[in-house]
Amino acid sequence: MSTTKKLGLMTTLASVVTFLSTSALAQPFGAAAAKAGANEFDARTGAMIGAGFAIGLGVLGGTLGQGRAAAAALEGISRNPGAAPRIQTPMILGLALIESLVLLSFVIAFFLQGK
Predict the structure, then answer these.
(1) How far is it, in rounded angstroms, from Cα 46 to Cα 112?
(2) How many Cα atoms occupy the beta-carbon half-sphere of 55 within 13 Å?
């Protein structure tokens, strides 16, 4: 399958999922909301969904960043083995900072869930 076909398929799938989930999560408004039994648990449910997305996106971004950083460091070390100590220390520092951002997204999601 070519890259163009994959991109088109992914775009179509993302559009379908977006439009279906929007209508499925629609909430009543005003008098209809009171009649339907809307309460403070609706807002809490939305915060929990947001917390789940925050954790997922944070972990996804951190994972991709750590993978790219490790791959670039290994490539640099394989091209110049003598530079390994100069590459390894900043790479470990960078990985620790990336991991701290993942943990920060976890903390923010935890606070969102508590609201």
Answers:
(1) 9
(2) 12
Model-wide pTM > 0.70: no
- C-alpha to C-alpha distance for 50 and 39, rounded to whole angstroms: 18
Average pLDDT, the chain: 80
Domain count of the chain?
1
> Within 10 A of 109 (CB to CB), how many other CB atoms are there?
21
| Residue 22: half-sphere exposure toward Cβ, Cα within 13 Å | 6
**Cβ count near 43 (within 10 Å):** 11
d(C-alpha 48, C-alpha 109), whole Å: 8
The one-letter code for the residue type at 95 is L
Alpha carbons 102 and 14: distance in angstroms, whole number: 25
What average pLDDT does range 8-34 have in this prediction? Answer: 69
d(CA 41, CA 47): 10
Q: Domain of 114?
A: 81-115
Q: For residue 91, tell me if it sits in a domain.
A: yes
